[in-house]
Amino acid sequence: MKWIKKLFGKKESSDVELGLKEINFEDLPAWLDTRSQKISFRVEKDVSGLLRELDASLLALKESNSRLADAKVEGDFDVRVVKRAKSNRENVTKQVTMLIDKIRVKENRDFRALESFYGTATQSLNACLEHMNQSFRYTRGVFSEESKDVSDSLASLGPIFNELGEVIQVNKKEMDTIEAAHSDTNKIQELLASIAAEELEFESKNRRIQALKAETSEASQALEDFRKGPVWQSLQNLQAESIAAREKLRKAETGLSSLVLPLSGHLSRIKKLHESGRYTLKPEVKKQLDICLEAPIHVNPSFFPELQKIFEDNALDMQAQKKEKALLQVKTAISNFPERKKEYLEVLKEFEAKKAELESSDTGKLVELEHKEAELLSRTRSLEEDIMDSEKKLAALREELEHQKKKLLSSLSLINSDLHVNFPSPVSGERHEFS
């Protein structure tokens, strides 16, 4: 057909006019828009005659539909046949009127508008024919000439839509490709912007972590210098002296308790005898006996002479051999407990003095330095994790960018196989050539 030859001829000249060997990425949207506009202009020009034919056919259809609606019954027909014909005529004229309204040619005639119009119109035409096909069988019998006019008018639409569909189909692939390229271009622009923003943030984080590391190093050095200084050394010496005093106190307690522990079994028996009423202790003696059993280092030395009297008392129900052994242990305690008690009290006094001195020493500076170092180390670790996340995000964005570039180049190769695209770098601004 002439219009097809004309169409391909125009397409070839358009390629010559718009053919490029190299293009910058930022110029692609305008270039694609130009291609799209050229196609729309070409298609509009090539279908203008078809649309005029369509207008004329629709007008003829409207007139034939009106004639059918106004037609009078001529001839001798059964009343039921006439009634059925008129009823179905109403359906035919209604369907045709609806069809005319739906496929009215719109003013917007760019490619996508025409494609949408073609799809809607052919769908409406097929629906109209389907809905009125049965009715035509009844109207033809009574309104044969008018029905034939409507049928012929409807039939005239078919070739027009067939040719319109061919024009759209010939150009659809390139238009689809252009739109796909547009979409890929937009995604690449978004990815380039995201990568640029993420790289700026990445550089900012790197600068912050370098500053943090420097600050942490200074804090660690300050802590180390403090620990080498006289205040820390004095504190360390005081802690060592306190530990030594605590050990001396422990030994003194052990030495004191060793005089009483051998008597614990005898003391427990005397306590039971007292509680059962078989032996009576003076209240003060009972009190000291309880102390001796629970905390022997706090017992009064005067308790042991009283204890000796108890063991020497014949009223105490105890085997003679055990009494003799117990008396020896009591006499040992009487001889040594006062001196060991004195030593214990002296050591206790020394320990408490060291403890008080240690508790009153100024450890605030040390705590401050340790807290600062720990806080800086924590912030550094957190920022390092953020940087790792940024690296992963950048890698994913760059991978997606390369994927979108390949998609774009694939679409562009269908439009212009010789075209090279210079993509910008989101960091340096340098261009990278792809084809």
UniProtKB/TrEMBL annotation:
Residues in coiled coil: 188-255, 341-407
The entry's keywords: Coiled coil
Protein name: Pneumococcal surface protein
Organism of origin: Methanosarcina barkeri MS
Lineage: Archaea, Methanobacteriati, Methanobacteriota, Stenosarchaea group, Methanomicrobia
